[in-house]
Amino acid sequence: MSISVSNLTKDYGKHTALNGISFEASAGKVLGFLGPNGAGKSTTMKILTCFIPQTSGKASVCGFDVVEAPLDVRRVIGYLPEHNPLYLEMYVKEALGFICDIHKIANKQERIKEVIELTGLDNEQFKKIGALSKGYRQRVGLAQAILPDPQVLILDEPTSGLDPNQVVGIRSLIRKLGKTKTVILSTHIMQEVEAVCDHVIIINKGEIVANSDLNDLRSKYPDKSLEKIFITLTNSNQDGISGREAGLN
Ligand SMILES: Nc1ncnc2c1ncn2[C@@H]1O[C@H](COP(=O)(O)OP(=O)(O)OP(=O)(O)O)[C@@H](O)[C@H]1O
Question: What family does the database annotate (predicted)?
Fold first, then answer.
């Protein structure tokens, strides 16, 4: 398994953001990580990418424990955070070159060219990042994440801020990357899940309420749209059932 999470808990002071979640993810699939605001998606991603430590439980990426071997974890992961920090004063190509240098990437110019094409940054490559629109900045973030060709990609709301044309391109890129890599993507957009994900984990109030192949989830609720399934599983008042009762764990 590329990603293995076992009984992971995160407390922020008295608030429990993650309450003993466990899941696994493997290469060749795109895993959609869904949940309402404040469910714990970003917290999970930040733990997996070694930005914050868990309170208890275990998480490993490609066999490397996030606490014991954070440098190894970071080496195998590409991460696009929700609020993606970028070097606004740098030119696009300059920033990508900088990332190449950090990762000691061979064939630097070739790889930058390849990634610029993949992320559709051709027309913007000579601009300063600070001069780019929100959508293009998002593309730079994605370009930076995939530049070292990581085995695992963790993408926190990767299409936020993109216009519909850009969304289509980025989704197809994510699908392509997901054929060989382990991709975890967090999103609120159900169409995105339908378009990109093979497997979904739905998290609610720090607990996993569904962990299922997307097709299996659909067949369990044949009359419901994915949106409706999501609402059912994350709001126990709706339809009067919770995810646990629905047996989707
Ligand atoms: N640094 C922090 N200090 C205190 N509480 C935090 C901190 N970061 C997150 N939380 C809380 O932990 C819970 C989970 O937050 P998290 O950002 O992981 O949710 P999320 O599922 O990513 O939400 P969203 O979809 O809104 O981005 C929320 O209640 C949030 O307020």
Answer: Belongs to the ABC transporter superfamily.
